[in-house]
Amino acid sequence: MKLSQRAQLCELSPMRKFHPFAVEAKAKGRKIYHLNIGQPDIATPPVYFEAVQHFSQPVLEYAESPGRPNLIHAIQRYYDQIGVHYDEGDILITTGGSEALSILMMCILDPGSEVLVPEPFYPNYNTFIRAAGGVIHPIHTSPEEGYHYADRARIEAEINENTRAIMITNPSNPTGVILTPEERQMLLEIAKEHDLYLISDEVYREFYYSGEGLATLGACAGSDEHLVLIDSVSKRFSACGARIGCLISRNKALMAEAMKFCQARLSVATLDQVAAAALYTVEPEYFETVRREYQRRRDTVMEKLRQIPGVVCEEPQGAFYLMAALPIDDADKFQQWLLTDFEDHGETVMFAPGHSFYATPGKGVNEIRIAYVLKQEDLARAMDLLALGIEAYNKAH
Amino acid sequence: MKLSQRAQLCELSPMRKFHPFAVEAKAKGRKIYHLNIGQPDIATPPVYFEAVQHFSQPVLEYAESPGRPNLIHAIQRYYDQIGVHYDEGDILITTGGSEALSILMMCILDPGSEVLVPEPFYPNYNTFIRAAGGVIHPIHTSPEEGYHYADRARIEAEINENTRAIMITNPSNPTGVILTPEERQMLLEIAKEHDLYLISDEVYREFYYSGEGLATLGACAGSDEHLVLIDSVSKRFSACGARIGCLISRNKALMAEAMKFCQARLSVATLDQVAAAALYTVEPEYFETVRREYQRRRDTVMEKLRQIPGVVCEEPQGAFYLMAALPIDDADKFQQWLLTDFEDHGETVMFAPGHSFYATPGKGVNEIRIAYVLKQEDLARAMDLLALGIEAYNKAH
């Protein structure tokens, strides 16, 4: 029996291949500091669980295919507060930002279509785009330039007749780069000029550590037809397990197509939608507290990184990730070695090797992504382990 | 900007086009009996809500990509009880049976691939198959033959070089047809002989009203490589809003591809998985009670249908749907007229017109699907309204 070509072009999670080595290291009694996953340790606001507990209908029915009106209205109010109004029909609730991406790619890509994405990028973009028959066409960046990609000439040089969209993550996973207002407007201008969709994945919007504060491409003038936002409660409210996201656009033709896929899968989980609406009632202080915590963590990581000779890393401005080039030959080999051959007082560290965040073969080989989602003292220890590891690895190789 | 060809080939829910007329009828004070939707009115077992209330982790984290082990083990025990053992790796938890179908089609279809499906079929199959670039190739049935499709010669005549799978719903939505053990084995033999996947959507497994009782194609000898099951808690436990389903197969190569898509979308909602595992602890009496209730409803509908002159309908053996051919010209026109021009004591009725359950153009035009998900007295009244409607419609046309 045949398997599809698209499935064979997709890959298992690149982080997964180190799982057996991690299991083995743990079996030997090693403690592993995990900088490799984006699961925050921040408590989910209790209103989520309270809303679930107060649900009192005897039948757990399907929700409406576009989403529960109550949740859509909560999201509308959230956007109104940051100065952008969306109509109810501009918002489709999805099973996480993941399903928003999946449905969107189904709507805009045909076999052979290309999506321009600055690399390094969130590796799962590959699967959503491949599933729809498309391919990522990378926009190049470098660690030396702090992974900045918003350069008009560089982007326009990559547009061809197969290009359907430009997709960015702002703030960026994995680099922490945040666009300036001018850069945002410039990207929209490129999209308009070349008749492309501009997809802005803004699930890390609340996680900024400098600059202008809460920002969205939705605030750009003239964005109605071209802009598509991907949003989610996962990171905003540390509610990754809720699987509640949304697809937002004022492009009516696009949203009409997306509705077909929403109807086919019937609905998003009812209780999680009820509870997600409650999340949008948390006070602004919640975000302030979380932001300060992540900023301290970022500062800790950066301080430690700057002390490691040969590391190239600009200070990230947002999200809770950073990419860094290390003075090693190969981050994959280094990661495996850290699990099999290294320990300091019985401890070692995991990160995400960089090459799987790139579409260009050979790029990112000496880079890693660090997710700073641990308590500060654990982060500091993890970074010390990284420094010790680099030194020992380079002596041994 | 372009929209994908696949999206344009998909359709909005066929039930949806009558929504504006229903809204208008309700605005005029009409009461509508809904036989058009498959949302059961049976209470969800309270263990679901209890499990959710007892969840006490402070962070709502991502679940494991293949599903929470606890839920997978509950499903394994359920299958062990019906005499079929699956290993943990044979089961992937999905966001409803819908996502199981979507991921499966992504794994097995390429552009131009065909899936043999007996028509009439669940209309959303169209979208999942179209999304993956494939198309439904129908196996013909007729109301006069009670929509039976399990005929070896008829099925084999439709197999060609593009055929990748045979997909059935057993018990069937929309026809209520249930396969005999011999028919199940025969379908598997066809799949093996022609090297096809055999996909059995068994989400209505508990809803049988005669014959051998709980049955699954998983019990067929030699089904390991070819068989794929689609399952869900939605109908089994009247928990449609949980969006918990699963994809089951012993075909390791297929499940390895499916895992890629599971990893890309990260996980299924955590709380719903916790609660779904609790559903599997309900006692067998729960199913007995529900089954008796649906059987009474089916009997009520059949008794009423037999009294309408010119209706063609065999008694359905399972699920909670039936298809019937009516003595009218066009079920679409008839449905619209029932909403705009008909009432009896201020009441009217809705069903699902038959043609959208077919892939063959022109078929099912005078057929309807009835979902018997209302209380008996409401069902009886709804069927009387249908009889009165047919009479009045035929007089007026």
Care to describe what's here?
The structure is a homodimer of 397-residue chains. The mean pLDDT of chain A is 96. The radius of gyration of chain A is 21 Å and the shape is globular. Helices cover 38% and strands 15% of the residues of chain A. In chain A, the strands form 3 sheets. Chain A has a 7-stranded mixed beta sheet, with helices on both faces. A 3-stranded antiparallel beta sheet of chain A has the order 9-12-11. The relative contact order of chain A is 0.17. Chain A is built from 13 helices and 12 strands.
How would you summarize this macromolecular structure in one to three sentences?
Chain A contains 13 helices and 12 strands. With 397 residues, the first copy, chain A, is α/β, with parallel strands linked by helices. The radius of gyration of chain A is 21 Å and the shape is globular.
* Gross geometry of chain A: globular
Q: Which sequence of SSEs, written as H and E, runs from N to C of chain A? A: HHEHHEHEHEHEHEEEHHHEHEEEH
Query: What oligomeric state best describes the polypeptide chains here?
Result: homodimer
Kindly report the spatial arrangement of strands forming the biggest sheet of chain A. 2-8-7-6-5-3-4
Task: Please report the number of helical segments of chain A.
Answer: 13
Q: Provide the gyration radius of chain A in Å.
A: 21 Å
Largest sheet of chain A: 7 strands, mixed
Overall mean pLDDT score of chain A? 96
Q: Unreliable runs of chain A, pLDDT <50, ≥5 residues? A: none
Number of E-state strands of chain A: 12
* Cα separation of the termini of chain A: 45 Å
Percent of residues in helices of chain A comes to 25-40%
User: In percent, how much strand structure appears in the residues of chain A?
Assistant: 5-15%
Largest interface: A-B, 79 and 79 residues
Structural class given helices, strands, pairing of chain A?
A: alpha/beta
